[in-house]
Amino acid sequence: MEDNVQSTVVDTPEASESQSASSASSPESAELAELRQQKTDLQERLLRLQAEFDNFRKRTDRERMEFAEYAGEVTVRALLPTLDDFERALKAAGGVENELTRGIQLIYSRLLESLKKQGLEPIAAEGAQFDPHQHEAIGKLESVDYPDNSIVQEYQRGYRYKGRLLRPSMVQVAVNH
Hints:
3 domains; Nucleotide Exchange Factor Grpe, Chain A, domain 2; 177 residues
């Protein structure tokens, strides 16, 4: 004789609580997973915002430093025509020594030294090799007396301000053919 055992589901209060807990845990676990995902997303967003703010802070610090470093550039650029006028006046004197030319030379020297202390650097031109990054050729001289691409004459002096080109030298360049 065989025993036929059938399993029957007993509908007891404990069984129904266990069944409802497992079905209720499914929406709760989904909600918990969603909350965890939101937390992860918010943490990533916070990290990105912190990085963006740090980059912004560094960029504004760099811009502030550059502004402070080159704030005098506008003033120095405005004084360049005055330096040019002093140089022309001294050339026009033609080497004649008198009190007027000594006075002009003294004022020119003091102004140039003051501007050098602020960061102005004259660009050496006459006799140097032509460099298109520092010189502007406004004429050429065909000659075998000078090396090819050497600067024969400087018409207007060029300057750098704290390493940056402020104004290129206007020069005449020797060309050998």
